[in-house]
Model the fold of this input.
Amino acid sequence: MREAVLFFFIVVAGTAGELCVSRAMKSVGEIHDFRPKSILRFILQSSRLPWMWLGLALMSVGFFSLLAILSFREVSFVVPVSALSYAAGAVGAKALLGERIVRNRWIGIAVVCLGVTIVWWSRK
Amino acid sequence: MTHTRRLHLKTIPLILVSIILGPLGNVFLGKAMKGVGSLRSVRILDLAPIASGVLTSGYIWLGIACLLGFFLAHMLLLTWADYSYVQPATSLSYLTIAILSYFILGEAISPLRWLGVSVICLGVFLVGQTSPSGVLERA
Done:
């Protein structure tokens, strides 16, 4: 039961956090060069956005859940199962960010989910 | 050079960095957490000594450093590429995680688990056939 709750936090809080960060990043705009000065300005700009902080808070919940589950489960089991966030990510990106997800991308995501299911079966 | 080609030229190297740093970070976290004992049925009062055990482990900081590098690469990617492209594309890291868990942590990986990881990578390949940004496809 505790395991299921932790996976829920990893998948849902982690994905929601990434969506918030992605939303913040899109409002900062595309990066055109990688000089330290530009990267610093990019970090400062993004740290002023509430979406960034909400995203980081949610991702922290996911991160601590990951640490907890890693204390009693194998890395090669936990990390692949947390790929369930693919489905959550696609649904969330469509609903919250308005990203248009082409059919082939959905097919790829479905195959990823099948792989996650097989890894889940390999549970000892 | 077309805009799409230019996008791929900066997208692919950053994805490669993500694919290596992310799994390496997780492997180090796993090593650190296995060292402090199971949190499966731990009481709240026991969390303080466990937390201090975790924080004084070198592996946790090594893992966090790798994940920070991964996070920076990921953030840069998200400024131009769709989230629903970046997330599946970096998931080639599931193959890396299985390989690193086997070699660094000595985890026994059953054929069924290898199959699952490979199917995940096949899904990733399919996703990689789509354009990095939906905006470009619409234009």
Notes: Chain A touches chain B through 59 residues (CB under 8 Å). Chain A has six helices and no strands.
